[in-house]
Write a structure and sequence with these properties.
Layout lengths: L3 H13 L9 H18 L5 H39 L2
Length: 89
Amino acid sequence: MLDFKDLDDIARRLSAAVPPGATALGREIQDQFRAILSAALERLDVVSRSEFDVQRCILLRTREKLETLEQRIAELEALLAERHRGEGR
């Protein structure tokens, strides 16, 4: 879900760029900008910063687990090779 606080900030900045004669419509323009931005971003299929951070944490934990498993497999393969060499004597 999108962070509407950020959308409000962008809408405020856009309405600040509106010519001075049109600023009497201030809040209405901000609301329109916010609605347009929200609709456009939803069509872009983007994720919020919080969703991104959650997925980043999951990826980091998964990467750590993978590295641990790779190390364990290497240890087991070395042990198996050692036993195999011992049986060949």
